[in-house]
Write a structure and sequence with these properties.
- It contains 1 helix and 8 strands; from the N terminus they run βββββββαβ.
- By secondary structure, it is mainly β.
- It has one domain: predicted glycosyltransferase like domains (Thrombin, subunit H, Beta Barrel), CATH 2.40.10.220.
- It has a 6-stranded antiparallel β-barrel.
- A hairpin with a 4-residue loop joins strand 2 and strand 3.
- The protein is globular and about 35 Å long.
- The termini are close together.
Length: about 120
């Protein structure tokens, strides 16, 4: 595999819902997060290519809010072999400094654990 991640991923150890704000539709739950993107698990296959406006509803407050809203492009989506779910990978688009700081703060919280063993993208 030659697709080594550029940023450390942090596995989510608490429930965080991910919603498409354009359609007000629940897409799935947060699997992991990095400063460059995120991975979710959901019941439906997501199309690759479009930019989604995602609302992540966190179980704990970070910098005075439980909501994180950002634009992210779906780069890949695949069905899991073991479960009847889809895993989708997103890359952030046009992220501002405040949102980036909130992501960094959140990944340092007890809601996440480092995924240093996961250096390869799931494709």
């Amino acid at each position: 595999m030659d697709n080594i991640r550029k940023c450390d991923r942090f596995k989510c150890s608490t429930y965080c819902s991910v919603i498409d704000t354009y359609k007000e539709k629940h897409l799935g739950i947060l699997v992991d997060l990095s400063i460059s993107g995120l991975q979710i698990m959901g019941e439906e296959e997501l199309g690759c290519g479009p930019v989604f406006n995602l609302r992540i509803e966190m179980s704990k407050e970070v910098m005075n809010s439980r909501i994180l809203v950002l634009d992210a492009k779906c780069l890949w989506c695949k069905k899991t072999e073991e479960l009847d779910f889809y895993i989708s990978g997103f890359e952030f688009e046009n992220i501002d400094g405040k949102t980036l700081e909130r992501i960094k703060t959140f990944t340092r919280s007890s809601a996440f654990r480092s995924s240093k063993f996961c250096k390869y993208a799931l494709k």
